[in-house]
Specification:
Length: 99
């Protein structure tokens, strides 16, 4: 599912216009990004937590040439799913019973 699929689903499910739904979804994503970029944790109960992590500069290798390269420090957004999301993802589907 991509962002457009999510917008279309929500618009149909809740009988909203696609324009309003698109603004709403983009607003949620923007707020999560802005808050996390300031170093604050974003915790959505029942879904998970977004947290900013900083990676130190390190040495790596060019896989094609084998030459050492410097990898610059960077920031990244880490997502930790809630227990409920983990359980839903790892739930095994039951096979239909044979009669």
């Amino acid at each position: 599912m991509n962002k457009n699929d999510l917008i279309e689903f929500l618009a149909e499910e809740y009988e909203l216009t696609k324009t309003f739904t698109k603004e709403l979804v983009e607003s949620v994503f923007t707020k999560i990004s802005e808050t996390a970029s300031k170093g604050h944790e974003v915790s959505i109960f029942g879904f998970g937590t977004f947290k900013l992590v900083e990676r130190k500069p390190r040495k790596g290798r060019n896989p094609r040439t084998g030459e050492p390269v410097k990898i610059a420090a960077s920031k990244s957004l880490k997502f930790k799913p809630s227990k409920a999301v983990k359980e839903a993802v790892n739930a095994k589907k039951r096979a239909p019973r044979k009669k």
